[in-house]
């Protein structure tokens, strides 16, 4: 594998030179947004340890609108196996909060006691770790699809200018966008590798 040592020569076109063809910075931001959304998904939804912070973003649907759980109740960790949500400030939303926790996809079975919701945290099984690792892979595949859409959209946009600019410029731009997509995909693969290691240990 003698080609290994020589990385592909990278193209680096000045964004200013091609701004009437395509906004490369915007393309880069769109790709980065896909990567950031994946990071957010990993940290929010794919944790082994269920911490109080994992509940902050659960959306509770009340008759007054949708609210994050942490705005309606006080979330406390009583022990590694028990999290409590104190709904004293909004007792009328207790049932809605219960429903939101039960349907959060976190595999929880909350119990209510007046305005206190008790959430026993299930023991982490190997199956649970493996299913989280599968979900992580699915998330990355979805993100890569989103990335491909950003890339295709940009390439389509460049091709519209083929009467105005040289074939070389089009080729260079396509190559640059492919590089940007490859970099973003490589970052996703790193995130997946780290997350899989964390989940499967």
UniProtKB/TrEMBL annotation:
UniProt domain Ribosome recycling factor: residue ranges: 38-200
GO molecular function: ribosomal large subunit binding
Cellular location(s): Mitochondrion
Main location class: mitochondrion
UniProt keyword list: Mitochondrion, Protein biosynthesis, Transit peptide
InterPro entries: Ribosome_recyc_fac (IPR002661), Ribosome_recyc_fac_dom (IPR023584), RRF_sf (IPR036191)
Pfam families: RRF
Gene Ontology terms: cellular component: mitochondrion
GO biological process: translation
Superkingdom of this protein's organism: Eukaryota
Protein family according to the UniProt entry: Belongs to the RRF family.
Protein name in the entry: Ribosome-recycling factor, mitochondrial
Organism: Crypturellus undulatus
Underlying gene: Mrrf
